[in-house]
Design brief:
Elements lengths: L2 E4 L4 E5 L3 E8 L3 E9 L26 H5 L19 E4 L10 E9 L17 E10 L4 E10 L4 E10 L5 E14 L3 E7 L7 E6 L3 E7 L11 E6 L9 E7 L4 E7 L4 E7 L7 E3 L4 E3 L2 E7 L2 H16 L13 E3 L1 H4 L5 H13 L4 E4 L27 H11 L3 E6 L3 E2 L4 H5 L19 E2 L5 H17 L4 E4 L21 H19 L4 E4 L9 H4 L4 E3 L6 H12 L7 E6 L12 H8 L3 E5 L7 H23 L1 E6 L1 H4 L2 E7 L5 E8 L9 E3 L9 E4 L2 E4 H6 L2 E3 L7 E8 L10
Parallel strand pairs: 21-22, 21-30, 22-23, 23-26, 26-27, 27-28, 28-29, 29-30
Antiparallel strand pairs: 1-2, 2-3, 3-4, 5-10, 6-7, 7-8, 8-9, 9-19, 9-20, 10-17, 10-18, 11-12, 11-14, 13-16, 14-15, 15-20, 16-17, 24-25, 31-32, 32-33, 33-38, 34-37, 35-36, 35-38
Helix pairs in contact: 7-8, 10-11, 11-12
Length: about 725
């Protein structure tokens, strides 16, 4: 049974194939965390709470109730009643007091997984998962808090969310509603997070966990370039193949905080949820507040097992696009080719050339609307600029289709330019504090998507464009972070709701888009890779991974991203050299091999390529079709890391049936007087035979002795190595 309840001991157990998560009711109703780790074969685990240790439970020692609460491993800790560690929940009543005392009330078990109203979340059928709802109440405030846990029966993953209901007669103010807390003893933990900046997103950082609080957070109105809503506690001996991992990932695209706190008693509390700074939510009588979902993964087999669990969960239980298991069209985006300097003829020329080389879709990026010829104008005026596109969008799309190409288009629907007709007509539609200067970024403001009339108006403009022509793809961009937070329509005591209401508006628009245009391929983007998170994946099967298109810089970006997210959702393109971001020259082959670890495409002026480069494009597009299914749906293994070695990078994907694999190797910096070496593979069947470069090996020797990697002259060289069963089908998707 995935969910077991020991009624006598008041213990709840959540079992996945290889893990157990346990909690229990203590004394007069406190809900305590008991265990999370390898699968247990018993529910007789209450002794792990150490209730016999001083200062003892309040029922036996009321004198030290405070001391007890400050060391009890709490399942959902609160503010104001004696636990001085980081809380997960804080509520303020109308008199201004901040305190709650949530006590266990009841539970229910449901087959399947209920959705979260207005929010992205993982999903699953009655046969795939089971949900446990634990209800806790504060009788004085008449608050009911539902702690929701869902167990995926074939995966080592548990999801958590929280629903707060006001059953009283007065409003209360929620000041913190985290979605998850994990409270356990320290085991020489280190903390892993993903950090960076624009064009350097999701670089892996690992650091020892010391006493005090260590957090990963964003207060920018988005999950951000700089920090990422993922945190993992790992034992100090953890590698790709061994060691314990406790990971959390937030299914949300706005402000967040993940925090680890090591206490005086050597306990560690890991919390995750909406960032409390700038957040308050007025909860009126009879109303609910739903906190976004946190995905928890435990692995006793290192980071690699954690990664593959996240990949499988997100591929099968988060992304809902019809493109999920479909081969994505190879696209060419005109951004680095033309920037704003294009017209109909230039786009058609690109399409004609690209179609002859195996590319399947032209994406028209920024600059097609209003009077936009730079990034200083026209956002909000989503009408075609017919001075650029003679005959309008329908004519352009039809001409592109004549080349055999599909057509895609760029939007930035969350933003508004000061010079736009929309802003001149509705200046109050921008997020702003009355009387205060509105902060610009990229000469643009942010639309107040907490307002339904704004959501409806902007969506209608997008809808009109998409219905005007045969459009197969939308790149949804968002190019600045949120500041000067105020809404002219929210009352003073609800201004703290704006960040979250903004995200709910974004989610509503994307939900409407994918429902009205179910065959549309949606690719989210935010200044490149600022909103690469599970919340966005719920609506779009792929996300623009970064604006950095340099193959070498992408190694660290893609390694960090692939730590959590499937390769099938990483937008990755071949660009021209010298690269527009860093000025580096990288072999065309390497640019293709690196971009192949994602949703493959091009971002260059294909009409200016040499014949040799065009031949490489033909080869790469054919290779994409050859390897697509293996890369998109296979198991991912990290063999070596450029971020660790500074010299080389290597990863591989293995088909689910272990019959084939693909190794991608990049020699970043060549070394003098270097010899060939052997690279040990992973994920194969030891007793199975495999063909590599025309020779037959067993999986055992490939994983324990390795394959030969020749020394190379020249930096930035790479190769792809196919591994197949002999006399079987090649690594091919048709």
């Amino acid at each position: 049974m995935p969910v077991k309840v020991n009624e006598k001991e008041k213990v709840f157990l959540l079992n996945t194939p290889k893990t157990t998560y346990a909690m229990g009711v203590v004394d007069d109703g406190f809900l305590a965390h008991i265990y999370y780790g390898k699968r247990l074969n018993t529910s007789d685990i209450r002794y792990l709470l150490k209730e016999e240790d001083p200062p003892y439970i309040p029922g036996n020692n009321k004198r030290e109730e405070n001391a007890f609460l400050d060391q009890l491993p709490m399942e959902y800790p609160e503010t104001g009643m004696g636990d001085y560690r980081e809380s997960a929940f804080c509520v303020r009543n109308m008199e201004g007091f901040r305190a709650s005392e949530l006590k266990y009330d009841r539970y229910e078990i449901l087959k399947g997984k209920p959705g979260l109203e207005g929010l992205p979340a993982t999903w699953g059928s009655d046969e795939e998962c089971t949900t446990l709802n634990i209800f806790c109440v504060d009788t004085l405030l008449a608050l009911e808090v539902c702690l929701r846990y869902t167990v995926f029966e074939q995966l080592d993953a548990v999801t958590r969310s929280v629903i707060v209901k006001n059953n009283g007669h007065e409003s209360v103010y929620l000041e913190k509603v985290f979605s998850a807390c994990l409270d356990m003893e320290d085991r020489d933990f280190e903390m892993i997070g993903l950090f960076g900046s624009w064009a350097r997103e999701r670089h892996l950082q690992r650091r020892p966990l010391g006493y005090g609080r260590q957090n990963i957070s964003s207060f920018k109105g988005e999950s951000s370039h700089q920090e990422h809503p993922f945190a993992a506690l790992v034992t100090s001996d953890t590698t790709q193949e061994a060691g314990e991992v406790y990971a959390m990932n937030f299914v949300y695209s706005g402000n967040f905080m993940a925090q680890a706190e090591k206490s005086q008693f050597d306990s560690v509390r890991l919390t995750m949820g909406i960032h409390p700074e700038g957040f308050t939510w007025k909860l009126d009588p009879g109303k609910y507040f739903t906190a976004p979902e946190v995905v928890m993964v435990y692995s006793s087999e290192g980071l690699g097992k954690m990664t593959r669990t996240f990949h499988d969960l997100y591929r099968d239980h988060l992304i809902r696009s019809p493109y999920l298991h479909r081969e994505r069209p190879i696209l060419i985006n005109n951004w680095e080719a033309t920037y704003f300097d294009f017209d109909e003829k230039k786009l058609i020329d690109i399409a004609r050339e690209a179609s002859q080389l195996g590319i399947e879709m032209l994406v028209m990026d920024d600059g097609w609307f209003g009077h936009r010829s730079s990034d200083d104008s026209s956002l909000g005026d989503w009408q075609v600029n017919e001075e650029k596109l003679k005959g309008g969008l329908p004519h352009l799309v039809e001409e592109v289709k004549k080349t055999g190409m599909k057509f895609g288009i760029w939007f930035e629907p969350e933003m508004i330019s000061p010079d736009s007709d929309l802003f001149k007509k509705h200046p109050d539609w921008a997020i702003q504090i009355p009387g205060r200067h509105i902060t610009q970024s990229r000469a643009q403001y942010v639309l107040d998507l907490s307002r339904q009339e704004v959501v409806d108006a902007v969506y209608k403009m997008m809808e009109n464009v998409l219905k005007s022509a045969d459009i197969s793809y939308v790149k949804w961009d968002m190019n600045r972070q949120l500041t000067t937070m105020g809404s002219v329509c929210l009352p003073p005591d609800r201004q703290g709701e704006l960040f979250h209401r903004y995200m709910l508006g974004v989610y509503q628009m994307q939900e409407r888009l994918v429902r009205e245009f179910p065959d549309l391929l949606l690719e989210n983007c935010s200044g490149g890779g600022a909103r690469f998170d599970p919340g966005m994946l719920y609506y779009s099967p792929q996300i623009w991974c970064s604006d950095d298109t340099d193959a070498i810089e992408r190694l660290k970006i893609q390694e960090g991203t692939a730590l959590v997210y499937p390769l099938s959702c990483m937008g990755a393109h071949v660009s021209v050299c010298p690269n527009h971001t860093v000025g580096r020259n990288t072999p065309f082959e390497t640019r293709g091999n690196v971009a192949m670890a994602g949703t493959f495409g091009y971002e260059l002026d294909i009409t200016k390529l040499s014949e040799e480069e065009k031949e490489m494009v033909r080869y790469q597009t054919a290779s994409y079709h050859r390897y697509h299914k293996l890369i998109a749906e296979g198991d991912y293994y990290r063999l070596c890391s450029f971020s660790e070695t500074g010299e080389e990078d290597c990863w591989m994907t293995v088909s689910k049936d272990k019959s084939r694999a693909l190794v991608s190797y990049v020699c970043v910096l060549a070394k003098p007087n270097a010899k060939s070496r052997f690279l040990r593979l992973k994920g194969l069947e030891p007793d199975r035979k495999y063909e590599v470069k025309g020779k037959i090996y067993t999986g055992n020797i490939l994983m324990n002795a390795g394959i030969k990697i020749e020394s190379r002259q020249g930096d930035f060289r790479s190769e792809q190595i196919e591994i197949n069963e002999p006399d079987g089908e090649p690594v091919c998707d048709g």
